[in-house]
Amino acid sequence: MKELHLKELNKVIVKDEIEELIHAYVQCIDGDHLEEWPEFFTEDCLYQIISRENYEQNLPASIIYCDSKGMLKDRVTAHRQANIFEKHVYRHIVSSIRITNQEEDVYTVYTNYAVFQTRLNGYSEVYNVGKYIDTIVFENGQAKFKEKKVVYDSLVIPTLLVTPI
């Protein structure tokens, strides 16, 4: 009985850690702390922003494809130094965080998201909507993304996508 209770308690702790990772991730982006963004990932990782249509047809074409933490850091550097875009802020809303699979210490997690974008003129709009399909592992007791696939439902992205979703 005690062993069963510990297993259930461990599930709750793992779920809380995964939810905290997802909430901290979107708060990092919304707060424009992009230099911290790569630290949510393992060294050998995948970050992909892909349309639902391409994802469902297993087509590789993505808007963004980074397959290492180094590439994520380069993305932040380009964002800060090379890209020219209209200033804006994001506000993420995430819901329905659900662990759908566990194999040993690797978790597959689905999360719905909506991103609102507000420009300096104060105009806000729905920017992007979809789901995260995450592969999450624990490194030194800390939850990290091994893979983060951002599968967007939106048919059109209204402006240049420079900030991670």
UniProtKB/TrEMBL annotation:
InterPro entries: NTF2-like_dom_sf, Rng_hydr_dOase-bsu. Pfam families: Ring_hydroxyl_B. The keyword Protease does not apply. SUPFAM superfamilies: NTF2-like (SSF54427). CDD domains: ring_hydroxylating_dioxygenases_beta. GO terms for molecular function: dioxygenase activity. Keywords: Dioxygenase, Oxidoreductase. The keyword Oxidoreductase applies. It comes from the Bacteria. Belongs to the bacterial ring-hydroxylating dioxygenase beta subunit family. This is Aromatic-ring-hydroxylating dioxygenase subunit beta.
